[in-house]
Amino acid sequence: MTSADDEHARDAAAPGTGFYGRRKGKPLRALQSQHLAQELPRLQLDLATLGDDLHALFPVPVTSIRLEIGFGGGEHLLAEAARHPGIGFIGAEAFVNGVAKATAGIVEAGLANVRLHGDDVVPLLDRLPAGALEQIDLLYPDPWPKRRHWKRRFVRPDNLDRFARLLAPGGHFRFATDVEDYAAWTLRHLIADARFDWTARVADDWRRPFAGWPGTRYEAKALREGRTPGYYEFRRI
């Protein structure tokens, strides 16, 4: 259940951006605040100085770059970074509490292949060089279930244009949701877009989690409440 203040915050958009929702939640724990103040500056991307070679963002050699949009508490982002130390990961999340948790997790795990963008992702998408990404993950985004709010859903034509520009040929866009209507919405948009190919061939392809899937808090909540998650993958042609 959300409070009236939460609903108001969700209805408020940052002018000229793609972000809708709260920026802050519960007060941060002392250690999270410490990591945020001391460690985030070295992990945070600076859009003003972002160059065309994204590999240079990382102090270790990486063969390719992946982006996760709206990483929540960072469970999936950090698990993937630990599983693929030779791949560079960029995580974008506008919710301060999620950024704080991910920052603490990166420091505690000693991950050198993760960088963060703690703000609206659209300016980042517009700043990244074309064809720079191997993969984009959008996992359990806000479904905006009310019809009048559908325009706020992140899967929409302007953002698909951004994905198509950023993904290298053969790159992948992965989407997960437990909301049947949002799954159908996403499939309608992606199937109609000649730049993407849905990789599923049978129903089990989208009913099964992605390889190495660690789960997320949103998935756990969906399962507790009896909703069935779906996992959708699209290849950039």
Give a brief description:
This is tRNA (guanine-N(7)-)-methyltransferase. This protein has helices at 4-11, 30-38, 40-43, 75-83, 96-109, 121-127, 157-166, 180-191, 203-207, 217-224, and strands at 65-69, 88-92, 114-117, 133-139, 167-177, 196-198, 230-236. It has 237 residues and is α/β, with parallel strands linked by helices.
Structure description:
The chain has a 7-stranded mixed β-sheet with strand order 3-2-1-4-5-7-6, sandwiched between helices. Helix 2 (30-38) packs across helix 5 (96-109). It is globular and about 45 Å long. It has one domain (23-236): Vaccinia Virus protein VP39 (Rossmann fold, 3-Layer(aba) Sandwich). The protein is of the alpha/beta class. Mean pLDDT is 89; it is low at 1-17. Helix content is 36%, strand content 18%. Helix 5 (96-109) links the parallel strand 2 (88-92) and strand 3 (114-117). It is built from 10 helices and 7 strands.
> Mind describing the biggest β-sheet?
7 strands, mixed
What structural category characterises the helix and strand content? alpha/beta
Spatial shape: globular
| Annotation field: number of helices | 10
SSE run: HHHEHEHEHEHEHEHHE
What's the rounded overall pLDDT mean? Answer: 89
Number of beta strands: 7
Which consecutive residue ranges, at least 5 long each, have pLDDT under 50?
Answer: 1-17
Do you know the CATH topology?
Rossmann fold
Order of strands across the biggest sheet? 3-2-1-4-5-7-6
Going by CATH, the homologous superfamily would be: Vaccinia Virus protein VP39
Query: What percentage of amino acids are in beta strands?
Result: 15-25%
Q: Would you state the CATH class? A: Alpha Beta
* Count of folded domains: 1
Rg on CA atoms, Å: 17 Å
Give the termini separation.
41 Å
- Assign the CATH architecture: 3-Layer(aba) Sandwich
Helix content: 25-40%
